[in-house]
Design a protein that fits this description.
The chain contains three helices and six strands, in the order βααβββββα. It has helices spanning 10-13, 16-27, 107-116; strands at 2-5, 33-39, 43-48, 51-65, 71-85, 91-104. The protein has a six-stranded mixed sheet, with helices on one face.
């Protein structure tokens, strides 16, 4: 599976690809290409082999802290949805799977990225 990310925010690039890959693997979707198209605080929009999907994240809970006491890993509950058209120009999300993942990041890289801005 090839994963491409359109996300340029360095705060996300550390963990986003691994998180999406893990969610796809847990869903048992067989696919060739995944594009991480967009995200906000609670959702990630994906294109998986040309079809639209979204990951909805819930309940971010810190699980690991760095030496300064800042979180550097969080437990994240998620649900993967496939966009389904109703044939009349509307649609809804059909649940594909749900689960829990741990996301990790390097605080030094996050701190350095914030200083440059």
């Amino acid at each position: 599976m090839k994963i491409k990310s359109n996300i340029e925010n360095s705060n996300y690039t550390q963990w986003i690809t691994g998180f999406v890959e893990s969610v796809i693997n847990q869903s048992d979707l067989k696919c060739d290409e995944v594009v991480i198209d967009e995200l906000d605080d609670k959702r990630m929009w994906l294109i998986i082999d040309g079809a639209e999907y979204a990951i909805r994240t819930w309940n971010f809970e810190p699980v690991t802290y760095d030496l300064q006491g800042r979180p550097c890993a969080e437990r994240v509950d998620y649900t993967l949805f496939k966009d389904v058209s109703d044939g009349n120009g509307g649609g809804h999300g059909e649940e594909v799977c749900c689960g829990v993942e741990i996301i990790r990041w390097d605080n030094d890289k996050v701190i350095n990225a914030e200083r440059r801005q």
